[in-house]
């Protein structure tokens, strides 16, 4: 009987020890650090925001923005997600806008929607813009609706597999178009390739 109790106690203790060792209590981590979860076949949030920030920095480095000490006005034109995943448009676009606006050489227009019509992100600013356009469509005051550039952002996905190993390549493309003539004055792209057979922590 004593031997049985001892064996049971040891088993319970071992189970508790294993449970304690594998327990991973909730805690805060750096969203840009190396402890975030990395999936092998999905677009992680750090992938999307990092790509948006990197392409924005590339645009800033091109010297295209800001002329004669005045910031360029940019309208976010199209956001195209050609992947199998639901990727938050606002989170990606906001990363671009924050990066560009902080640099001081660009301002993003909030009163034009994805169809090129008045009624963008800011309801109050869009309402004011509509009230300042007369019945013929010309601006009564200096027109706040005409941007210098339109920005487009596109995400593509390509999958491959060899045995148990799966590989996914995400391509991020960003273009800046001069609204006066339709010319693409700047373009760049970034690729992220992920490979593995299971998700992991860290990257």
Give the topology.
Blueprint: H1 2-22, E1 37-38, H2 45-61, E2 72-82, H3 89-103, E3 106-109, H4 123-131, E4 149-162, E5 165-178, E6 184-196, E7 200-201
Helix pairs in contact: 2-3
Pfam family, one: LpoB
InterPro entries: LpoB
Protein name: Penicillin-binding protein activator LpoB
Task: Tell me the helix content.
Answer: 25-40%
> Which parts are unreliable, with pLDDT below 50 for 5 consecutive residues or more?
15-20
Tally of domains: 1
Tertiary shape: elongated
Structural class determined from secondary elements: alpha/beta
Q: How many helical elements?
A: 4
Largest sheet descriptor: 5 strands, mixed
**Strand coverage percent:** 25-35%
- Average pLDDT for all residues: 75
Question: How many E-type strands?
Answer: 7
Radius of gyration: 25 Å
Side by side, the strands of the main sheet go 3-2-4-5-6
**What sequence of helices (H) and strands (E) makes up the elements?**
HEHEHEHEEEE
Give the termini separation: 52 Å
